[in-house]
C-alpha cells in the first residue's frame, strides 16, 4: 500500500512544488489541500484518517482529530514550526501516535518582523503610506528609538533575536520569561511579569501560548502601562486579551498596535481593530521567508519520514 502524507501548513503549501520531488523519490503520495490559515476540526476528522503521516500547521490538532486518525491510517505527525499550543500531545501519547515539532527555526525571521513593527509604530510609517496612497503628504511626528524601553515578553529563540535588534537600535530591554536561560552576550534586565511594566515605551510579545501566558496582557496590565505605550505581537494572539486591547486603544492608553497574530484568525471583518487608525496588521506570517520555509519543511519531512521508516 502506498504511504500517504498530508500537509496542512500554509507556508509549506505555498512552496509545495519544490518539495514534491522528495515525496516522489520515496514513493509517497502527497496530499496538499488549499488552506488559508487552518482547516476546521470537522474537515480534519474527515481528512486525516486517509493519511499515514501528517505535517500539521496551526490546525486544531485535537484529541478527536487524532482519535479519528488512529481509527484510520494515521501513524505519525510532525508539527511544522515552533508553537505547539494547537496540538494535543497527551492524546498522541495515549493513542501511540509519535509526534514532534521543529523548534528553534524562525528566531531571526520573526525578530526581523518584530523590529520592523517597532520602527513602523515609532515613526508611523503605516500612516504615511496610507496618506501618500490617498494623495496626501502626511508628516506625523514619531518618536526616536534611542533610549526607549522595550518590555520583551518571551526570551526564547525569538525573544533573544529580537533583543539583539532592539539593542542595535540602542533601546533598553526588560525581558520576561521565567523559564528562559540567560544570554551572556545580551545585556538585558530580567523581571517578573508584570513588574516594571510602567516603564515600557514598547511591549513586544514573542512568547508561545501556554495556560500561564494566555491573556497576560489584559485590562489590569493596560491600567498600569505608560500612557501612549506601543504594542507589538509576533507570538500568539491569545497572549493578549483583544477586547481589553481594543478598550485600551480606544481610551488612548495604548497609542498603537502592530499585530501579526490574533485571537481568531483570520481577523474577523467586524473586529473594531480594523477601524482603529493606529493599528497595523500581519497575517500570522512573520516566519514566512523562502529560506526559513525550505529549511523547516525539509526538517519536518525528515522527521516524519523517520517515524514512517522512510529516508528523505
Summarize the structure.
With 312 residues, the chain is of the alpha/beta class.
What does this structure look like?
With 312 residues, the protein is α/β, with parallel strands linked by helices. The chain has two domains: 4-103 and 289-307, Rossmann fold; 107-281, 3-Layer(aba) Sandwich (Rossmann fold). Helix content is 34%, strand content 15%. The protein has eleven helices and twelve strands. The strands form two sheets. The chain has a seven-stranded parallel sheet with strand order 8-7-6-9-10-11-12. Strands 2-1-3-4-5 form a five-stranded parallel sheet, sandwiched between helices. Helix 3 packs parallel to helix 4 (63-71) and helix 4 (63-71) runs parallel beside helix 5. The longest helix has 18 residues, at 290-307.
Number of strands: 12
Largest sheet: 7 strands, parallel
- Would you tell me the overall average pLDDT? 97
Task: Just name the CATH architecture of the largest domain.
Answer: 3-Layer(aba) Sandwich
Which structural class do the helices and strands define?
Answer: alpha/beta
Q: In terms of per-residue confidence, which ranges show pLDDT below 50 for 5 or more consecutive residues?
A: none
Shape, principal axes of CA atoms = elongated
Main CATH class of the largest domain: Alpha Beta
CATH topology (level 3) name of the largest domain: Rossmann fold
Strand order of the largest sheet: 8-7-6-9-10-11-12
Using only C-alpha atoms, the radius of gyration works out to 21 Å
How many domain units?
Answer: 2
Beta-strand portion reads: 15-25%
Amino acid at each position: 500500500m502506498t504511504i500517504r502524507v498530508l500537509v496542512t501548513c500554509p507556508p509549506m503549501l505555498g512552496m509545495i512544488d519544490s518539495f514534491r520531488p522528495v515525496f516522489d523519490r520515496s514513493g509517497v503520495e502527497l496530499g496538499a489541500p488549499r488552506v488559508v490559515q487552518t482547516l476546521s476540526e470537522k474537515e480534519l476528522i474527515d481528512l486525516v484518517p486517509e493519511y499515514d503521516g501528517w505535517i500539521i500547521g496551526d490546525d486544531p490538532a485535537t484529541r478527536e482529530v487524532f482519535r479519528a486518525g488512529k481509527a484510520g491510517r494515521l501513524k505519525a505527525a510532525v508539527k511544522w514550526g515552533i508553537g505547539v499550543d494547537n496540538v494535543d500531545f497527551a492524546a498522541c501519547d495515549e493513542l501511540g501516535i509519535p509526534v514532534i515539532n521543529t523548534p528553534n527555526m524562525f528566531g531571526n525571521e520573526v525578530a526581523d518582523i518584530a523590529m520592523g513593527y517597532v520602527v513602523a509604530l515609532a515613526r508611523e510609517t503605516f500612516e504615511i503610506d496610507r496618506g501618500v496612497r490617498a494623495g496626501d503628504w502626511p508628516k506625523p511626528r514619531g518618536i526616536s528609538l534611542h533610549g526607549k524601553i522595550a518590555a520583551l515578553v518571551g526570551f526564547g529563540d525569538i525573544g533573544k533575536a529580537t533583543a539583539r535588534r532592539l539593542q542595535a537600535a540602542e533601546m533598553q530591554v526588560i525581558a520576561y520569561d521565567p523559564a528562559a536561560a540567560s544570554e551572556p552576550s545580551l545585556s538585558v534586565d530580567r523581571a517578573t511579569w508584570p513588574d516594571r511594566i510602567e516603564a515600557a515605551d514598547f511591549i513586544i510579545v514573542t512568547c508561545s501560548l501556554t495556560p500561564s501566558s494566555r491573556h497576560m496582557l489584559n485590562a489590569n496590565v493596560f491600567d498600569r502601562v505608560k500612557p501612549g505605550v506601543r504594542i507589538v505581537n509576533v507570538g500568539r494572539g491569545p497572549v493578549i486579551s483583544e477586547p481589553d486591547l481594543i478598550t485600551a486603544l480606544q481610551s488612548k492608553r495604548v497609542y498603537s498596535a502592530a499585530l501579526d497574530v490574533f485571537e481568531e484568525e483570520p481577523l474577523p471583518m467586524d473586529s473594531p481593530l480594523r477601524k482603529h487608525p493606529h493599528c497595523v496588521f500581519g497575517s500570522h506570517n512573520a516566519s514566512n521567508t523562502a529560506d526559513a520555509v525550505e529549511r523547516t519543511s525539509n526538517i519536518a519531512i525528515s522527521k516524519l519520514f523517520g517515524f514512517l521508516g522512510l529516508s528523505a
